[in-house]
Amino acid sequence: MSYLTPPERFKRLPGLTHWGRGLPPLSEAVPAMEAWFRTPVGQEILSRELQQVDEVLQCLFGYHLCQLSVCRNLELTATSRILHRFSLNPLSPTGDQDHGPAALALPEQLPLPAESTDVVLLHHILEFSNRPHQVLREAARVLMPRGHLVIVGFNPWSLLGAWKALATWSREPHWRYQALSVRRLTDWLRLLDIEASSLSRGFYRPPVQGLRALSMLQTWDSWCERWQWQGGGFYVLVARKEVTPLTPIRPLWAAGEVLQGLGAGSLPKSNKVARRQAAPPRNRGYKNPPSQS
């Protein structure tokens, strides 16, 4: 066994969530995240995310918009100008879902044809996926050229990320996610010919479950969000799929060129060129040509 490979008993620990090890299954993570977003701190984070996502979607246009979220009963695309909006959920939607059409699909295997969607929204779906590379690859596949990818994720370099590092050893599934930094995401997207175009952050307070504590830090949070400090609890990354168009170059065939190897002679010349070559040469040096003795 290699020294760089952790033993099997360490892989089963709930705190070891690097590269998909120790992640809870989606059957546990999705209900846990839905319940956490109903808490005071979860509602505060969700309201800030909705505000920034609305500002982003108002500037994106197209015909089709796909949403993949870790919450089944959440609609993030209500203010979008795109008419056809639908959701793909990793679990069966609950009965109280009253927004837009939805379908059951895995984020690693999207049931969509290639280059068929203008905007793809990933809401905290990468943090609970064992194969985040495959999720991004599928999103890039279904995106149309010049289409946009909107990613909402938790920032590991924040107070929320530090709180998550301390609470990871607990048995609560909503803290057992893998936080992906913006730098890592941009590197992965660049391999898929997707370039980041804008980035915004929000929620600079610790995730304490108390309305009084959250309201006391409201001024600090507003000041940091105004100046877009890097320590925001979440980020909204907008990237665009770049496709280099290929312009065909037409060959320029010269007049009278012989096609080598095909046995074809020279091309026929025009009548004007034939008359010019048949005419006798002019004597430009004398008015009268010298007599021949």
TrEMBL record:
Keyword Ligase: no
Pfam families in the record: Methyltransf_11
Any one of the GO BP annotations: methylation
Molecular-function annotations in GO: S-adenosylmethionine-dependent methyltransferase activity
Keywords attached to this entry: Methyltransferase, Transferase
Region ranges (Disordered): 266-293
UniProt domain Methyltransferase type: residue ranges: 107-151
Protein name per UniProt: SAM-dependent methyltransferase
UniProt organism field: Simiduia aestuariiviva
